[in-house]
Amino acid sequence: VLQGLSHLHSLKPAIIHGGLNENNVLISSREVAKITDFGNSFLATPILPSAAKRPLLEYMPPEVMRRDRCNEKVDIFSLGHLTLYIMNQQKPHLILGPTFEEQGKLIARSEVERRANHLEKMARQLDGGNTHPLSAIVTNCLSDDKDLRPSCKNILRSDFFTNPFDGNIQNAVVHPTGLTLGQGEYGKVLEVRYKTKTYAAKKYHLYPTHSSSLTPVMRMIKMRHPNILPYYGMCKLATDGSKVLVMRRIQINLTISLQRSMKLPKKVEVLNDVANGLHFLHNQTPAIIHRNLTANNVLLDVNGMARISDFADSSIVASLIHGTEDYMSPEALEGKEHNDRMDTFAFGHLSVYVIIQHRPVHLECSEHEVGGKVILRTEVERRKYHLDEMKSKL
């Protein structure tokens, strides 16, 4: 829901839903929330929406009740109320006073205060009466002053949504379970435990120590997108104190999934997820180039949604990454200057592989520069014809 609202509010001009509640949040078969019912929506202008475009009474923010000027913070108030309802599935009971006008233009100040007290009580009761990390967020969302309510982007950047480590990610110590989840050219992936949960952690063979080298990594840790594997931060292994990049643990990658039964509509759905993830990475400022997109680093979560992984490698070991040769673009193979279009080439190659589940045979070339920067032009041409042949079979 936050991602959806954030998208609406980021448009120019921003679109305000104006009627967000549990009845117009739909859940897809993949358990993805979709905001609907934009009949109450209006463009972000500092005016009050018409009477026909006011949210449900129990979701109505104070400025609407008072007939004050409104902006996108109307939705933030409704979001706070929706969060309370989701967490303890209970709505506050409104006690309407005699000063409620027929046109719904005003609810008495005393009613606003009564409801504010009731909502604060509900916030304290979240999670069975314990202090819940969402309490501060909900309290701010339900602020009587709309200027004090956070934006969707600020909520998404909060520690609660960006990592599970209580904000102390750089000092966190994780304990390896002894299970190695995978191993590649640049490092190996371990299963680690932090508090009561298990995560995946990548330990690099060559790890940069200069702070400037880690700046892009820290930026990635804050990024959240449904088709990007969440990275939580750099932690220390309890065994030897070495640095590891901790991320969400998803066991199944696309290569394994394709070996099982996957029908064409599902394949197209997965490719759509990957395209959305790449679009998100390439639209960062500056753009993030994956450099090594393959079926092995596209993971499928329990809902079948594809998530791109290993994009952090592009920053941690960018000077070393050449990519998987079968997926590399000609300009990268020849050592020429390249940009995010090398990911587009890899996506085309991935699409061919996913659809027909056949990878072109890589023709080894004996003549190449040390370091793998160049494969002879003849090899590039041979592969081009081979890919064209594969495309014709689609």
Automatic annotation (TrEMBL):
The keyword Secreted is assigned to this record: no
Key word Isomerase present: no
Keywords in alphabetical order: ATP-binding, Kinase, Nucleotide-binding, Transferase
InterPro entries on file: Kinase-like_dom_sf (IPR011009), Prot_kinase_dom (IPR000719), Protein_kinase_ATP_BS (IPR017441)
Residue numbers binding ATP: 203
SUPFAM superfamilies: Protein kinase-like (PK-like) (SSF56112)
PROSITE patterns the UniProt entry points to: PROTEIN_KINASE_ATP (PS00107), PROTEIN_KINASE_DOM (PS50011)
One Pfam family linked to the record: Pkinase
Protein name per Swiss-Prot or TrEMBL: Probable serine/threonine-protein kinase drkB
Organism: Geodia barretti (Barrett's horny sponge)
Lineage: Eukaryota, Metazoa, Porifera, Demospongiae, Heteroscleromorpha
